[in-house]
Here is the input.
Amino acid sequence: MAAIASRRHLAASMLYHNQVNASSSHTPTLLVHGGAWAIPSSDSAAHETGVRNALEAGFAILSRGGSALDAVQASVTILEDDPTFDAGRGSFLTSDGRVQLDALLMDGGRMKAGGVACVERLRNPIQAARLVLEESPHVYFVGAGAEQFALAHGMSLIENSELVLDRERQRLLEAQARHASGLADETFSGNEVANVTRFHDDKGPETAFTLDNHNSALDSHDTVGAVALDSSGNLAAATSTGGTLNKTPGRVGDSSLIGCGCYADNLSAAVSLTGWGEPIMKLVLGKWATDRVAAGTHPELAAREAIEYLYNRLGGHGGIILLGPDGRFGLAHNTPAMAWGIATPSGLHTGLNI
Ligand code: ASP
Here is the structure.
């Protein structure tokens, strides 16, 4: 019985593999996000502009026949350079007032990945991730080792203070004052009141009860990400973040962990997530979603199911962009907003809500 089941499984996966590789021309498609959280209306325009700029840079590469990997790297570089977002310069600060960045890049055609975490002296960690992907037998570097690897491969090291904005110093002070007075973090959830019957993630402040009418516009969680399909049929994904506000130095979230905040495999899908990282990483949510696409679920449904699973299982809040090898895609979030954009040969679209 077991042998028959496993032969059937093998036949099904070969069929899927052949379907994925049979089609010779693919419609280049790029999706980006700029974080899922309670985006205040005063920041809406900056988010949509940033996402549009990222789409234009990435899609220019896809349109001239470039690779999905180059496209997601270019899009995320633009978003890292834009201080609107929680990636690169302008990121949230750690509890001791520094910027610590995490990023991952994955090539679904070659099944290669490169990641860096807790880097403090790189302006564009996604470029360091690319160097890890291309130049190292290893997949993941952290801290000083990651910075030295990047330096040895031609990147410049900068002072951490070049990544720190006054806006973020102020935001950190406010977050620490709120924390000291026992108020909940509503960054991802808005002011939703927690449902006591749900199993709450014990480390996710977003699931805490709302204790006041705290203005979540003071917070921002703008991790950035991109997924792409190129004309050769290859998928790639990239995610880059400054992590969560007031995080303890050395903390790594979901964004740069393979299968958590980022994943790509031509035989399943490409995904990038955003939201409070601890619940996302415990559910290995990126891989969870791409496995569903490989099993035949439409990415639109798989994206919605992933966010429902995040909420129902751990009370988590976040957003997802998911792209299949046939160009079908899905976006979902359960935060009040998510900055998103999509580019195909028919045009560019951006939005702040699905
Ligand atoms: N997922 C990121 C983290 O936990 C934060 C975010 O998406 O905004 O580090």
Remarks:
- The chain is about 35% helix and 20% strand.
- The CA atoms of residues 91 and 127 lie 17 Å apart.
